[in-house]
What we know:
By secondary structure, this protein is an alpha+beta fold. Among the domains are: 21-65, no CATH class; 93-189 and 246-262.
Amino acid sequence: SEKQAEKAVHQKKEQSKTKCRKARRRHINLVAEFNHRQRKNIWLETHIWHAKRFHMVKKWGYCLGNSPTEKSYRACYRAMTKHCLLQDLSYYCCLELKGKENELLKQLARICSIDTGLTFQEACYLSGRFEGSLNLYRADRYPEDMLGPVTFIWKPRDGSENRQLWIWVHPALKQDILRELKAIFQCSEPEETCISEPVTTSIQEEKQVEVVMSIGNKRKKEDKEGEKAVPVKKIIGDGTRDPFQSYSWIARTTGIAISDRSMEILRYRLIGPLSHSVLTETLKAASVQTV
């Protein structure tokens, strides 16, 4: 029995040596660890890539790459002029509007002006083929009380009078613009089916993290405040909204709904002459199945 015990110990040592140090220290559930570390500032999906190469800053509820740690300006310039450069703009907030086209256009006309350029009702934008940009103002207050610049895109028509519009805003402007949109469309009532639940790591994920942290006692789960550690949340948009709050509102009179889709839709910017080639090589058209 002693020989068998020695043999088992020897086998365990051999198995542990086969894995590299990085593999041995890796957490069981990377997603749980990823969520666990986002206590105050949410990470973009490209966070780890940026964190290894950039000086990170905390702004608008996010942890963002500010400046590169190495001199990569020439490489970026070369990519923009000859190849393709990708930027992660997922920290921009997306506000979704759903409802009848004429109702949407009627109220949206109150917060913009044709004097500043093409607006939401321009035919090329309404078709959904192009993205538009304009400045928004408080309702009926142009040229005073500007809210800020936004970009927008309509979902292409499907034969119905109901349309879908996505408005992209900077996180610093989201609260003001969302408040104005809710006011002009009278969307005060939360949609019952769209009330978000507090998004925390699941019990199973938490247990897995605890198991890994207990091995070797190399990490503590508590932060500096010990037992007062903040529970893991999915922070949406600019990071100020409590997860118990609703993220979708509806107007009972017109049926128009406004939803905060921040951090649900990723947004990337491709710059350079080979951008189109990269997209065509990367994206494949899905086969549409009709029942």
